[in-house]
Amino acid sequence: MHPATAPGGLPLLGHLPAMLARPLAFLDTLPAHGDLVRVRVGPRDLYLVGAPELIRRVLTDRADFDRTGPLYAKIRTFLGNGLASCPHADHQRLRRIVQPAFRHALLPRYAEAMTAETAALTARWQAGRTVDVTREAFTLTTAVAVRTLFSAGLTAEAAERLRHALDVLLRGLYLRVVLPAADLLPTPARREYRRALRAWHAGVAAIIADYRARGVDHGDVLSLLLAARDEDGCPLAERELADQVATLVLAGAETTSSALAWSLRLVAEHPEVERKLHAELDAGPAGEPARWQHLAQLPYTAQVVSEALRLYPPAWAVSRTTTRPLVLGGARLPAGALVVCCLYLLQRRPELFPDPTRFDPDRFAPGAVHRDAYLPFGLGATRCPGDRFGTVEATLALATVAGRWRLRPAAEGPVRPRPRLVLSPGPQPMTPTDRISGPAG
C-alpha cells in the first residue's frame, strides 16, 4: 500500500512553496489525508506522520530509523556531529559525555544567570516604547546560553558576534533543508550565510583554545566538557568539542526563546490567563525578578509555558531516515526514505487535546498526564537532555517579565511563524506598560 499524497503540489516544485511561505497552514491540512502523508519538496519525497503510535515507533526504533541522509548532512554543516544531529552509532557515547552538564544539582547555578540576564534585559525597556518581543527573547536566551557555557573569557563583543552568527545561520538553515539548491545560487543571502558559518566556527574555536590555555575549571558547561572522558578514558577531540558547543548553544538559545516569545504573546491575547498569571506572580516574587527558590510558587506560570510548548513546539518536525525497506502505518517505505514526525500536528490532535487550538494552561494542572501526546523535547534515547534547563529558564523569564510588565501587541493581526529550523514567531512588536509604577490595567 502506498501512502496518501498531499494535494496541491506544483510541477517540479511540489509542495515547496507552501513549506516556505506558510508551513503551519499547510501542515494543518494534512490530517484529513491520513496519519502518514507523502509530501513532495522539489525532487524529494517526505513522509509526514502525526499519530502517536507512529511517532513513538519512529523515534524509539533505532534499528529501522536513523539520523542519516541528505537532510542531516545539511544540518551537520552547522552543528557538526553534535548530540542533536549525530547518527545513533555516536549518540550513546556523546550523550554520556554531555549529560552531566545538565544534572539537577547544577540548575540553581544556571538559574542565577537566567534571572540576572532577564532582569538586565527588561530593565532597559521603557513604558510605551515598543519592543520586538521575539528578538528580545532570542537576545536573552542567547546571552544565558553563552553565560552558562562560557562563564569566563568571553567579551561582550565576542558574545554579540556569536549571537548574530547564530541568528543568520538559523534563518538560513531551514531554507537549505527544504531547498538544497539555495547553496548553489550566488545571492547576497548565501554570502551572508557563509560568512556567519565561518564566524561561528572561528568564534567557538577561539573560545575553546582560550579555555585550554588557561587550564582553569570555571564551573561552566565548557569546563565540564573539557574535563569529560569517554569509556576509554579519552577526552573529546577539538572538532567534537566544537560540535557539542554548537548544539548546546542552539538548544539553549533558539528553543527556549521560541517558548518564551510564544508564551508572552499568548498571555497578552488571553485576558483571563493574564489575570491568573499576574495573581500568582503578585503573591510570589511580587515584582522582583523570579529566582530558583520561587519556582515552587509558580505552578501556573509553568503551565503557561507548557501550553505554549504544546501549541508551538520548537522542534515542530523531527526527522529520521529509514535504514531498510519497511512498513509504517500500513504503507511501504523504501530504504533511505525521509520520515518527518510532526510534533506540531501530534499536539493538536482533538482526540488527545479537546478543542486543540484553544490556549488553555489548565490542561497542565497538577496531576495531568499526556504520555505520548506531549513531546516538545522529543522521545526515547534522543530526547533533549536539557529539557529541564529550558523549562526552568522559560518559566523564570516569563515570571520576571510578566511580574514587571504588561505587554500589548503594537500591530493588529496574528503573528506569522517564521520558517526556521525551530518554530519561532516572526517579528512581534509589543508595547510594555509598567505594572509596578504604571496605571493598573
Provide a descriptive summary of the structure in words:
This protein is of the alpha+beta class and 441 residues long. It has one domain (4-434): Orthogonal Bundle (Cytochrome p450), CATH 1.10.630. It contains 15 helices and 13 strands. The protein has helices at residues 16-21, 23-28, 52-60, 70-79, 88-98, 107-123, 133-149, 156-178, 188-214, 221-227, 238-269, 271-283, 299-311, 343-346, 387-404, and strands spanning 4-5, 36-41, 44-49, 65-66, 131-132, 317-322, 326-328, 331-333, 338-342, 405-409, 417-418, 424-425, 429-434. The strands form four sheets. Strands 1-2-3-9-6-4 form a six-stranded mixed sheet. It has a three-stranded antiparallel sheet with strand order 5-13-10. It has a two-stranded antiparallel sheet with strand order 7-8. Strand 11 (417-418) and strand 12 (424-425) form a beta hairpin. Helix 12 packs antiparallel against helix 13 and helix 13 (299-311) packs across helix 15. The mean pLDDT is 88.
CATH superfamily: Cytochrome P450
What's the total count of β strands? 13
Query: How widely separated are the two ends?
Result: 59 Å
What is the class in the CATH system? Mainly Alpha
The SSE order reads: EHHEEHEHHHEHHHHHHHEEEEHHEEEE
Give the overall average pLDDT.
Answer: 88
CATH topology, by name, is Cytochrome p450
Helix content: 40-55%
Task: Write the SSE topology.
Blueprint lengths: L3 E2 L10 H6 L1 H6 L7 E6 L2 E6 L2 H9 L4 E2 L3 H10 L8 H11 L8 H17 L7 E2 H17 L6 H23 L9 H27 L6 H7 L10 H32 L1 H13 L15 H13 L5 E6 L3 E3 L2 E3 L4 E5 H4 L40 H18 E5 L7 E2 L5 E2 L3 E6 L7
Helix pairs in contact: 4-8, 6-7, 6-15, 7-11, 8-9, 9-11, 11-13, 11-15, 12-13, 13-15
Keywords: Heme, Iron, Metal-binding, Monooxygenase, Oxidoreductase
Organism: Kitasatospora griseola (Streptomyces griseolosporeus)
Family: Belongs to the cytochrome P450 family.
